[in-house]
């Protein structure tokens, strides 16, 4: 069976800066493929190249077997796109936005009206169908953006940060919809920096950083890495470095790192470790200045999975990677 | 894969999508009250600025009014719309839709053409009702208006394709070209009274050929150029503007 998305050595350079660096991967039909990475990792640039918005500097990609450069028309007919911004036409109504998008995808009149009505129902926008989109809230605009991407019953749906900055209810609705679409056979390419979302929705996850794919794996691998990266962060009045080896003896602690004036205790069982830290402090007469339980950050998980550290590129465009000691 | 669509089917699909863009732009941007006011008032304002006080007969003035109307109406709104759509990322919708870049450009230009045609109806009625306007050669007059609308809409879209999200960055170079064109195209200074080099430059201005065709259509003596040359000049200008516009967009896609 043809891959839904096939990417070979895709590269994007902006002058001397390489935003996406020879990445290759395959997305099987019917998959929810998560593209996970921190801000500036190259996620959106990759999506923009795959959807024809931006031209790659090098490399190739196909959508349902159609080359994105040489057979762009056929490739684009098979895809729906939700960009990272809700790019709706503010001066049109929800209905007119959908009808216009349907025209761009060549739907016949009766079909586009039927489909637009169905999508307005699905996204709870039927009551405001004739209202000017300018009056819509952020969540409503986001829902409309996704509805517009579904107008052509695409085989492959690109979703770039679909739930960012949305209220809990909208997030749940959109996640439920992604599952339903996938159950009906749509391949989903989901770009996100939210590990929980990737873990919950995806069947395969690629982690990208500095324009390179660090790892392609299953949500289970991500979940395991996430579980390992729970931690308790504590600061004592006397932050002696020598305490680190003693702290390793607390129940559940698998690693201790000294970070500034604080100790970070990585643990599989944060509640046990928390009570262990209090006992530890009491027994040694140490005063606790602050104590917090922390969930895993994308950086922690990236390091855990790839053994490499994330170097943010916003200030310097170097591409050095530091190996974790 | 991907080559299994007949050329006719593909052309039909491209044309219907270009029309969808054009019609949407007309509804959203061109028929808004400020744009309509501008489209109607501005050519008249410029016309009166440069004709009042000059000893011109109404028959000499009307071709100038027609030319200015299509020139400003067809070329002005597109350059405002595209940077705006780039900023709101709605322009990305066209790029990710199944249609060629050329169809996007044609769709964007189409709105300018229709607007130019609609607005040029106003001076037509003014001339017809109040000054007994007579069209001597309907074909030349119609070609003059229609091809000029295409050329100037394409010119506006070409400038709009400059890689920027700021309207100012487009309007400045565009007016740097548009305003001098008024002075070398026979609008304010007859071409015959220009030095020979000015007359040569004038022949490269599409606005010159607009005025020539409209004058000939109204049966008024015009600069001695065969109508077929003026028609060809306007067609070639349009093609050139479309081509440059497409190149600008390709550069944009490589840079973005």
Note down, in words, how this protein is organized.
The complex is a heterodimer of chains A (325) and B (256). Chain A folds into two domains: 28-53 and 79-218, Rossmann fold (3-Layer(aba) Sandwich), CATH 3.40.50; 230-295, 2-Layer Sandwich (Alpha-Beta Plaits), CATH 3.30.70. Chain A is built from eleven helices and 14 strands. Chain A is an alpha/beta fold and 325 residues long. Chain A has a six-stranded mixed beta sheet with strand order 6-7-8-3-9-10, sandwiched between helices. A four-stranded antiparallel beta sheet of chain A has the order 2-1-4-5. A four-stranded antiparallel beta sheet of chain A has the order 12-13-11-14. In chain B, 77% of the residues lie in helices and 0% in strands. In chain B, helix 6 (101-130) packs across helix 7 and helix 7 packs parallel to helix 11. Chain B starts with 6 loop residues before the first helix and ends with a helix. Chain A binds chain B through residues 14, 48, 51-55, 57, 65-67, 70-77, 79, 81, 83, 85, 87-92, 100-101, 103-106, and chain B through 1-3, 5, 10, 13, 16-17, 20-21, 24, 27-29, 32, 88-90, 92-100, 250, 253-256.
Give me a quick take on this structure.
Chain A has eleven helices and 14 strands.
Low-confidence stretches of chain B: none
Number of domains of chain B: 1
Number of strand segments of chain B: 0
Cα(first) to Cα(last) distance of chain A is 43 Å
Q: Name the helicity range of chain A.
A: 25-40%
Helix/strand structural class of chain A? alpha/beta
Summed up, the helix count of chain B is 11
Assign the CATH superfamily of the largest domain in chain A.
Answer: P-loop containing nucleotide triphosphate hydrolases
The number of distinct β-strands of chain A equals 14
Which architecture of the largest domain in chain A does the CATH hierarchy give at level 2?
3-Layer(aba) Sandwich
Q: Assign an overall shape of chain B.
A: globular
Count up the helices of chain A: 11
Which whole number gives the mean pLDDT of chain B?
89
When the domains of chain A are counted, the total is: 2
């Amino acid at each position: 069976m043809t891959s839904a998305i096939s990417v070979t050595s895709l590269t994007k350079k902006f002058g001397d800066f390489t935003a996406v660096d020879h990445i290759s991967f395959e997305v099987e039909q019917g998959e929810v493929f998560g593209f996970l990475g921190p801000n500036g990792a190259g996620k959106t640039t990759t999506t923009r190249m795959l959807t024809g918005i931006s031209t790659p500097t090098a490399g190739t990609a196909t959508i349902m077997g159609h080359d994105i450069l040489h057979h762009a028309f056929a490739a684009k007919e098979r895809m729906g796109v939700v960009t990272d911004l809700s790019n709706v036409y503010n001066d049109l109504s929800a209905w007119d936005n959908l009808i216009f998008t349907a025209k761009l995808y060549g739907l016949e009149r009766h079909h586009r009206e039927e489909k637009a009505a169905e999508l307005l129902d699905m996204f709870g926008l039927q009551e405001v169908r004739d209202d000017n989109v300018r009056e819509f809230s952020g969540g409503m605009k986001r829902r409309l953006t996704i509805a517009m991407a579904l107008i052509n019953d695409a085989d492959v749906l690109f979703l770039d940060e679909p739930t960012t900055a949305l209220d809990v209810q909208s997030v749940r609705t959109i996640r439920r919809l992604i599952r339903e679409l996938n159950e009906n056979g749509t391949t989903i390419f989901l770009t996100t920096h939210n590990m929980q979302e990737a873990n919950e929705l995806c069947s395969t996850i690629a982690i990208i950083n500095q324009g390179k794919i660090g790892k392609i794996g299953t949500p289970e691998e991500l979940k395991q890495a996430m579980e390992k990266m729970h931690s308790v962060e504590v600061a004592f009045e006397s932050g002696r470095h020598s305490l680190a080896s003693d702290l390793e003896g607390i129940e559940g602690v698998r690693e201790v790192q000294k970070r500034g004036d604080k100790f970070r205790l990585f643990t599989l069982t944060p509640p046990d470790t928390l009570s262990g830290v209090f006992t530890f402090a009491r027994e040694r007469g140490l005063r606790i200045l602050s104590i917090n339980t922390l969930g895993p950050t994308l950086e922690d998980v990236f390091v855990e999975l790839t053994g490499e550290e994330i170097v943010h590129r916003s200030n310097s465009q170097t591409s050095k990677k530091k190996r974790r000691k | 894969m991907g080559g299994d669509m007949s050329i006719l089917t593909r052309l039909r699909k491209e044309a219907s999508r270009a029309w969808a863009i054009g019609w949407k732009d007309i509804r959203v941007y061109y028929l808004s009250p400020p744009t309509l006011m501008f489209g109607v008032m501005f050519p008249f304002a410029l016309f009166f600025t440069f004709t009042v006080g000059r000893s011109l007969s109404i028959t000499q003035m009307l071709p100038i009014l027609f030319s200015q109307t299509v020139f400003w109406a067809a070329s002005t709104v597109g350059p405002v719309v595209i940077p705006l759509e780039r900023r709101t990322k709605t322009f990305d919708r066209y790029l990710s839709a199944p249609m060629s870049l050329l169809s996007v450009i044609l769709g964007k230009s189409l709105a300018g053409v229709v607007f130019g045609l609609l607005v040029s109806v106003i001076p037509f009625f003014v001339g017809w009702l109040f000054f007994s306007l007579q069209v001597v050669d309907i074909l030349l007059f119609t070609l003059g208006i229609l091809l000029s609308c295409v050329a100037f809409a394409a010119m506006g879209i070409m400038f709009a394709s400059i890689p920027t999200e700021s309207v100012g960055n487009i309007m400045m170079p565009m007016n740097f070209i548009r305003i001098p064109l008024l002075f070398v195209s026979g609008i304010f200074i007859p071409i015959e009274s220009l030095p020979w080099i000015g007359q040569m430059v004038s022949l490269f201005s599409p606005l010159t050929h607009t005025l020539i065709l409209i004058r000939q259509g109204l049966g008024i003596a015009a600069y001695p150029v065969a109508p077929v040359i003026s028609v060809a000049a306007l067609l070639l200008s349009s093609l050139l503007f479309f081509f440059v516009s497409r190149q600008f967009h390709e550069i944009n896609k490589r840079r973005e």
